[in-house]
Amino acid sequence: MDLALDEARMAAERGEIPVGAVLVRHDVVLATAGNETILDSDPTAHAEIVAIRRACAALASQRLPDCDLYVTLEPCAMCAAAISFARIRRLYFGAWDEKGGAVENGPRFFAQPTCHHAPEVYSGIGATPSGALLKRFFRDRRSQGE
Question: What is the pTM of this model?
Answer without folding.
Answer: 0.95
